[in-house]
Amino acid sequence: MDAETPSQSAHRTPPTPLDLGRVHVLTIGIDPQGSTYTAVAGRAGHQLAQRRFVVNAVTVRQLMRWCERRPEHRFAVE
Fold first, then answer.
1. Strand pairing report for 73-77 and 26-33
2. Residue 53's closest CA among 34, 77, 72?
3. Is the pLDDT confidence value at 57 over 80?
């Protein structure tokens, strides 16, 4: 592949956050441990929030409400 000339690189569209690996996306990790779920929200290796939920009939609703307060998120469940 040929290298870009300065005029070619000057006319390229700048990368969007998506092109940069979505560094602004918040990851929410959920660790189910029998009678509790622990949820941790973090970005770029930094923990921003943590909450422990007691498992019962409304746990999923409470967990989703907690997650929805954070703009862009993705989940990781252990």
1. parallel
2. 34
3. yes
**CA 20, 26, 30, 36: dihedral to nearest 10 degrees?**
170
CB 78 within 8 A of CB 29: yes
pTM of the prediction?
Answer: 0.61
Give yes or no for a contact between 12 and 6, defined as CB atoms under 8 angstroms apart.
no
The values of phi and psi at residue 29, to 5°, are -95, 135
Least confident segment among 6-10, 44-48, 57-61? 6-10
HSE-CB for 36 with a 13 A CA cutoff: 6
